[in-house]
Amino acid sequence: MNILDKIVAHKKSEVAAAKKRFSYMFLEESEYFTCPTHSFKEFLTAPDRTGIIAEFKRKSPSKGVINDDVKVEDVTMGYNAAGASALSVLTDNHFFMGRKRDLTKARLVNQIPLLRKDFMIDEYQIVEAKAIGADVILLIAAILSPEQIRTFAALAKSLGLSVLLEVHNLEELERSIESNLDAIGVNNRNLADFTVSVETSYQLAKHIPEEFLKISESAISNPQTIKELKQAGFNGFLIGENFMKEADPGKAMAEFVKEL
Ligand SMILES: O=P(O)(O)OC[C@@H](O)[C@@H](O)c1c[nH]c2ccccc12
């Protein structure tokens, strides 16, 4: 079993347990449930922002523990002050040491789009994303059927959430693309074996229709790469480890942004 299969298997049992403990009705009681969301498109195309989607990630299956010594409020406020267009917070606990509570803590102190970074395999998680304060959900093409992508995206839209579809190759892109998506993210990391190449973004860019935001995800560690990705038509740049590996990730981002 590759890592992605393991994550999905674990996620299925996690979601089944969560569903038993908290009903949909309970989720809908959240104060966030009726709150208006921040538009991913608007913030990513705002001229006074960097296009960077800055990620809070303590640990990953590929790198192990990256940073377990920082507070989510401090890091996300630092990212925001450094010009992040959006924030990404891992909520998977078993593989990434994230918590749903991390996302809600980031929500309380930031007024820019907040992406729930998790492995969505069930409608319940989308309703839950809204209830914990997210603005954007991630749908990973590698683990979802076109039918699931369609129904999950429609549900997200009905809740006012933006949808980021993640693809890693042309086949995933072609089978998954549909009108309820807001952004297409090209993951430069192959989630099945962890190899990374920014080339993946350049190769797929021309196949992404104009109407969708283009995001390049993972393995970005150099401001020059962002300049080149912008030239290739990318609007957004998802960066995690390069900032999180530093003692003060917000400060690391502020330094990085000076060279853009
Ligand atoms: O830390 P990096 O290499 O900058 O990557 C960030 C982000 O793209 C990565 O965390 C990611 C991309 N797609 C995912 C899906 C699930 C979990 C994590 C991810």
Blueprint (SSEs and pairs):
Blueprint: H1 3-21, H2 24-28, H3 40-44, E1 52-56, E2 59-60, E3 64-65, H4 72-81, E4 86-90, H5 100-109, E5 114-117, H6 123-132, E6 136-140, H7 146-158, E7 162-167, H8 170-176, E8 183-187, H9 199-205, E9 213-217, H10 223-231, E10 236-239, H11 241-244, H12 249-258
Parallel strand pairs: 1-4, 1-10, 4-5, 5-6, 6-7, 7-8, 8-9, 9-10
Antiparallel strand pairs: 2-3
Helix pairs in contact: 4-5, 4-12
The structure holds indole-3-glycerol phosphate.
Indole-3-glycerol phosphate binds next to β10 and α11.
Pfam families: IGPS
Domain Indole-3-glycerol phosphate synthase: 4-255
Pathway: Amino-acid biosynthesis; L-tryptophan biosynthesis; L-tryptophan from chorismate: step 4/5
CATH topology: TIM Barrel
Give the CATH superfamily.
Answer: Aldolase class I
Q: What overall form do the CA principal axes indicate?
A: globular
Secondary-structure element order, as H and E?
HHHEEEHEHEHEHEHEHEHEHH
The end-to-end span amounts to 41 Å
- Give the uncertain stretches in residue-range form: none
Q: What structural class results from the helix and strand content?
A: alpha/beta
Strand tally is 10
Please state the CA-atom Rg, rounded to the nearest Å: 17 Å
Helix content range: 40-55%
Tell me the strand percentage band: 15-25%
Placed side by side, the strands forming the largest sheet appear as 1-4-5-6-7-8-9-10
Number of helices, counting only DSSP H or I runs of 4 residues or more: 12
Mean pLDDT: 97
Let me know the largest β-sheet. 8 strands, parallel, barrel
- List the domain count as a whole number: 1
Name given to the CATH architecture: Alpha-Beta Barrel
CATH class: Alpha Beta
GO molecular function: indole-3-glycerol-phosphate synthase activity; phosphoribosylanthranilate isomerase activity
Keywords: Amino-acid biosynthesis, Aromatic amino acid biosynthesis, Decarboxylase, Lyase, Tryptophan biosynthesis
Pathway: Amino-acid biosynthesis; L-tryptophan biosynthesis; L-tryptophan from chorismate: step 4/5
Family: Belongs to the TrpC family.
